[in-house]
Amino acid sequence: MTTIKLIVIVATWAVCELSFAVQTHDAAAVNDRDINVRIFEDVQYPPLAYMARIQGVVTVQVRLDEQGRVVNAVAASGPELLVDGSVNNAKRWVFMPNSAKAAVVVYNYKILEGRCNKNASMFILQGRNLATVLACPPIVNESSSDK
Prior knowledge:
This protein is an alpha+beta fold and about 150 residues long. The chain has a single domain, classed as TolA/TonB C-terminal domain (2-Layer Sandwich), CATH 3.30.2420. It has three helices and nine strands, in the order αβββαββαββββ. It starts with a helix and ends in a 12-residue tail after the last strand.
């Protein structure tokens, strides 16, 4: 199980460190080196996606005003049940202004293997723009019907 966690951490870090340009709505390209988050908010695992055990990556493109506040956010890709929470969360972030007036946030939702005492999720901002949301598997009622 430790190996799986290590692989997840290494893989998410590698995604975060990639230098790639993404086209925004205004056709301005932004490189991840130009993305610097000043203020962010945690996001919880969306309840329906969590109960359905949906995992995946959501890419959100945002347009910024002159102060780096998000004025528009659109999901470029991702599982439908994870998209709305990601877009709504990205709208509350603030970035350092950049010449493209744009940024990208990559959300990685993952349900870990194992057992936990409660249904909870953990948010981690890694690197410049990788938001990882980890959750324990949903608790299953283990009571027996043989009584």
